[in-house]
Design a protein that fits this description.
The chain has helices at residues 39-55, 72-86, 89-107, 111-123, 164-170, 174-186, and strands spanning 138-142, 159-163. By secondary structure, it is mainly alpha-helical. It has a domain at 94-186. The structure holds zinc ion.
């Protein structure tokens, strides 16, 4: 609660959520006196501060800039360090994979995709070519993953009908199935 000058009015809380309500336990209950500094401590601290100000140990910093977590030097070292680790084929493959995955998502809704999928299903008589399941939810699988060869995206001989569980088993292990499925499709 603020007054007309925008100042907080004593005894009110700007946030009703954290506002102290009757019946609540005050945060300092039972702690009274714990944080009270001794006269001795106060005197010593006051003296220490006076001394620090006098010796220049403590001073008003002009143009104070908050320190960033890493200094420029540290930043340079980090970047040097990571160069060897993230460059090279692994990182690039990953980026390409991501791009193709996104492209695949985009193409999935197109008529061309639907036509390809339908042609694959028809050829395989709507049967999972792995477990021979019929009348279940089927998915077309790219025998050679399109992240390896984008040109085979709508190649019917690169597609095979799989049920969902069988399709899931091929994820990231496509190469293990290439030979088997290629033969099946060619048969
Ligand atoms: Zn199956």
């Amino acid at each position: 609660m603020r007054n007309e000058k925008g100042q907080f009015i004593k005894g009110t809380n700007p946030s009703p959520k954290t506002q102290f309500k009757k019946g609540m336990t005050p945060y300092n209950k039972g702690k009274k006196g714990l944080i009270k500094h001794s006269e001795e401590w106060k005197r010593k601290t006051s003296e220490r501060l006076k001394q620090q100000w006098a010796t220049g140990e403590r001073r008003v910093v002009e143009n104070f800039k908050p320190l960033s977590k890493h200094s420029e030097e540290t930043k340079r070292k980090i970047s040097e360090n990571s160069k060897g680790k993230h460059s090279g084929s692994l990182a690039w493959n990953w980026i390409e994979d991501r791009t193709i995955v996104l492209e695949k998502h985009r193409l999935r809704g197109t008529q061309e995709w639907k036509n390809w999928r339908m042609a694959v299903f028809e050829r395989d008589k709507y049967t999972c070519q792995e477990c021979n399941a019929m009348g279940v939810y089927l998915e077309p699988h790219h025998i050679t993953p399109i992240r390896s060869d984008m040109s085979k995206l709508f190649d019917i001989t690169n597609g095979i009908t799989l049920c969902r569980p069988c399709h899931q088993k091929t994820v990231w292990k496509e190469s293990d199935f290439v030979e088997k499925y290629s033969l099946l499709v060619a048969a």
